[in-house]
Amino acid sequence: NAGVTQTPKFQVLKTGQSMTLQCAQDMNHEYMSWYRQDPGMGLRLIHYSVGAGITDQGEVPNGYNVSRSTTEDFPLRLLSAAPSQTSVYFCASSSWDRDYGYTFGSGTRLTVV
Amino acid sequence: GESVGLHLPTLSVQEGDNSIINCAYSNSASDYFIWYKQESGKGPQFIIDIRSNMDKRQGQRVTVLLNKTVKHLSLQIAATQPGDSAVYFCAESVQDTDKLIFGTGTRLQVFP
Fold first, then answer.
1. What confidence tier does A98 reach under pLDDT thresholds 50, 70, 90?
2. CA distances (Å), A43 to each of A9, B3, B50, B76, in order?
């Protein structure tokens, strides 16, 4: 199993551009979520999903959209990139019983100039 | 949880000593707690978890203690090794909300 796969690993955007961060998991996990981590800080929840077709907002959802059309994929869309969105983005997934916590991807480092 | 900005609390321990990392969680309805280890440039890595119906859980060299009365969680690492150097985060979850919220991290530095 590959676990949680995030692409791309690095990305530079200009202010106002849009892009989609990809996240895929092959563990048949129901729960998936997106976090952002700013330098020297903890992880803040952006959006999460408890199953295909169901999404909800986390702590910092503004400027981001998500969809969950399949169990495996949970893309994060930046609608109009801003410098404040410069961060490292992590995707995570978990089974419904949350055994062994949430499995995280290796992250996408995004810089908005 | 709120961050402490650019300066994470730091715990410095000597190799071989025991480490205790503390965490105060915010929601009395939280029923599941996880400790994560994050090394530089990597995603968080699961260490150990505990549910609210337990006070203590042990793993290999690690123990998590949960005090629901004061909403406090601790991670004990026995015989700390250089490879334990990392940032450690606690996270809480409320089953009805299905959200995992991270607390402030602690940087663990192990010196010889």
1. low
2. 17, 9, 20, 22
